[in-house]
């Protein structure tokens, strides 16, 4: 492992009582500060799910059982046979669609144009019945957040999750 990080924070009501940051940056004799950046890998899925669920909760018209097609513009084409998929199907990895991991290597792939690739994907398991891990569907979930929030996913995570913690 090239990098590791640990943070200890104690809170009492809204006051931070003690805080300590440490990592292998300490071994390298580089200071770890609140501005130090670390890779988070698949923890971004937790942020993605938290943001999308918060947005759905804040919106009276949608919830986890909302069909994905109802969040999209007319003309949206989902993975064939997945037209009835809900938000929770995406977040719970119940789409039955393989991950298509190599698709992430395409430098032209964006959150917005990912949906255009869906028509070329196939399903291998029943919708809502089986667990099949998919980074691609979580990428699409971040796009749903952008549609609901009107800003980039990064801006939304900052404003809806991180800033309220300050």
Note the main attributes of this structure.
Beta-lactam/transpept-like, 7 helices, AmpC-like, two-stranded antiparallel sheet, Beta-lactam-related, Beta-lactamase-related domain-containing protein
Describe this structure in words.
It is a single chain. The protein is an alpha+beta fold. Helices cover 35% and strands 10% of the residues. The chain has helices spanning 24-27, 43-58, 68-71, 87-91, 111-114, 135-149, 153-162; strands at residues 5-12, 15-23. Strands 1-2 form a two-stranded antiparallel sheet. Strand 1 (5-12) and strand 2 (15-23) form a beta hairpin. Helix 2 packs parallel to helix 6. The two termini are 30 Å apart. Residues 1-5 and 7-11 have low confidence and may be disordered. This is Beta-lactamase-related domain-containing protein. Residues 29-165 form the Beta-lactamase-related domain.
Biggest β-sheet: strands ordered side by side in the sheet? 1-2
The number of helical elements comes to 7
Question: Pairing-aware structural class of the strands and helices?
Answer: alpha+beta
Task: Note the beta-strand portion.
Answer: 5-15%
Poorly predicted regions: 1-5, 7-11
Radius of gyration: 19 Å
What's the overall average pLDDT, rounded?
Answer: 83
**Most strands sheet:** 2 strands, antiparallel
Helix content: 25-40%
- Straight-line distance between termini: 30 Å
Q: Specify the overall morphology.
A: globular
Number-wise, the strands total 2
Order of helices and strands: EEHHHHHHH
């Amino acid at each position: 492992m090239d990098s590791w990080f640990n943070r200890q924070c104690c809170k009492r009501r809204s006051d931070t009582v003690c805080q300590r940051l440490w990592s292998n940056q300490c071994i390298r004799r580089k200071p770890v500060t609140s501005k130090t950046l670390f890779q988070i890998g698949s923890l971004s899925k937790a942020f993605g799910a938290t943001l999308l669920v918060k947005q759905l909760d804040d919106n009276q018209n949608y919830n986890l059982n909302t069909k994905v097609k109802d969040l999209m513009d007319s003309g949206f084409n989902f993975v064939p046979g997945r037209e009835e998929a809900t938000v929770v199907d995406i977040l719970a990895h119940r789409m039955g669609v393989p991950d298509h991991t190599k698709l992430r290597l395409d430098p032209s792939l964006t959150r917005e144009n990912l949906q255009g690739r869906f028509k070329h994907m196939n399903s291998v398991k029943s919708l809502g019945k089986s667990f099949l891990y998919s980074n691609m569907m979580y990428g699409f979930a971040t796009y749903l957040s952008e549609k609901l929030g009107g800003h980039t996913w990064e801006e939304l995570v900052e404003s809806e999750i991180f800033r309220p913690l300050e």
